[in-house]
From TrEMBL:
This is R-spondin-2. Belongs to the R-spondin family. Keywords: Developmental protein, Disulfide bond, Glycoprotein, Heparin-binding, Secreted, Sensory transduction, Signal, Wnt signaling pathway. The gene is Rspo2. Residues 9-110 form the R-spondin Fu-CRD domain. It comes from Origma solitaria.
Length: 212
């Protein structure tokens, strides 16, 4: 029987004009649909979005997914498809993947990512493979890849990094210390000025004797 525009009694074992299906035929799922202030029962082959089919000896029912932001679920606590913009992770729907997992955009899923260990201590400050002879150098620390990612397309975090450091010894023991290039230039310039001054002084003395 049809009551109104919708065949609300289709697949029913028992039906009410006001409340729709009350019991469903075997293998169908009972779903209580709400439209504004009105609600009525329907018998469906599969449950709508946001619900999952729960089979019981008494009657199969459509139960609501209790997982936040879930579009369809396998059971009360396990989502199989999340709403748009959310990643599926172990039956849950998340805005972003947790630590140790990487987002696969085409599937909107979180898969096991590249896992790295703890950073080592900073290494010795050096430059050009020497630990002395310079004022500044570089020190490096590293970490190991503990677990490779599930997919080769997922990159691993950086496993080595360097930073500027000050040498413990500016001058190498037993080595010949050389002045920096700037110091040499200053010394040479000072020497040239002294020679020029002495030359001008000699010319002045010679001119003064001639005038006498």
């Amino acid at each position: 029987a049809n009551y109104g525009p919708n065949p609300i009694c289709k697949g029913c074992l028992s039906c009410s004009k006001d409340n729709g299906c009350i019991r469903c035929q075997h293998k169908l799922f009972f779903f209580l649909r709400r439209e504004g202030m009105r609600q009525y029962g329907e018998c469906l082959h599969s449950c709508p979005s946001g619900y999952y089919g729960l089979r019981t000896p008494d009657m199969n029912r459509c139960s609501r997914c209790r997982i936040e932001n879930c579009d369809s679920c396998f059971s009360r606590d396990f989502c199989t498809k999340c709403k748009t913009g959310f990643y599926s992770h172990r039956g849950r729907c998340l805005r972003g993947c947790p630590a140790g997992f990487a987002a696969v955009e085409e599937l909107m899923e979180c898969v096991e990512g590249c896992e790295v260990g703890q950073w080592s201590e900073w290494g010795t400050c050096s430059r050009n493979n020497k630990t002395c002879g310079f004022k500044w150098g570089l020190e490096t620390r590293t970490r190991q890849i503990v677990k490779k990612p599930a997919k080769d397309t997922i990159p691993c975090p950086t496993i080595a990094e360097s930073r500027r450091c000050k040498m413990a010894m500016r001058h190498c023991p037993g080595g010949k210390w050389r002045r920096p290039a700037k110091t040499k230039d200053k010394k040479k310039k000072r020497k040239n000025l002294m020679e020029r001054a002495q030359k001008q002084h000699s010319i002045f003395l010679a001119t003064d004797k001639t005038s006498q």
